């Protein structure tokens, strides 16, 4: 596996490499990331991954400084997964001057996660557009666990007419149902045991909808109450349309249940399609 930190050296390395699939990450890799690399190998001749903790998408009181950085272990996992090229820029490589040109997503950036993390999706869209311009892949892969992020990026690529297919990878879970996440490492042993409640709660909503329930606000409120009763501090539990993440109006639509809640100091997100 080749490793490049500079943009020009990466571009040189990708010349005449056929169809390229790209999976951007912030490192601290788990099986969810590796499943994206496996999918990427099925889509292209050359698989490129990136590791970059993007300051632009972190708020002033978020975990940028303590976000886990495990570069050597990540490289071993990527090599074992058959990744051909790793792009691992420093901040000065990717932002040699202040990033004054920013991607401003539409109203979707202010709902759900965006309501509680102002500026987050602007930072995500900006760095992803920059990475896509650098790598110039034909395919890019992102996990469905970050459901809203996937929609923001898919819409960006479509509206800016980028010649890239966006593929959403299914959420990979531990045996007890917890969605794999780099932030799970922040959980204490007791919190890790309790953390499975988030998936159970949204799964219950899904089952209720499948059995005819259609009072979505009531389902959301009951879920928040259950989480609160177990000591969680919930930002949202929401039943939304898969197509645009607007509030659901009918159980006949393709729906998704999304949640973000804090257990101790750790903010967890999850979703399940209906």
Task: Describe the 3D structure.
The chain has two domains: 2-169, HUPs (Rossmann fold, 3-Layer(aba) Sandwich); 182-273, Pantoate-beta-alanine ligase, C-terminal domain (Pantoate--beta-alanine Ligase, Chain: A,domain 2). The chain is an alpha/beta fold and 274 residues long. Strands 1-4-3-2-5-6 form a six-stranded parallel β-sheet, with helices on both faces. The chain has a three-stranded antiparallel β-sheet with strand order 7-8-9. The mean pLDDT is 97. It contains ten helices and nine strands. Strand 5, helix 7 and strand 6 (165-169) form a beta-alpha-beta unit.
CATH class division of the largest domain:
Alpha Beta
**Share in helix:** 25-40%
Beta strand %: 15-25%
CATH architecture field of the largest domain: 3-Layer(aba) Sandwich
- Backbone shape: globular
Counting H and I runs of at least 4 residues, what is the number of helices? Answer: 10
Radius of gyration: 19 Å
Uncertain runs are none
CATH topology (fold) name of the largest domain: Rossmann fold
Could you say which structural class the secondary elements and strand pairing correspond to? alpha/beta
What is the element string, with H for helices and E for strands? EHEHEHEHHHEHEHHHEEE
> What is the assigned CATH homologous superfamily of the largest domain?
HUPs
Mean pLDDT: 97
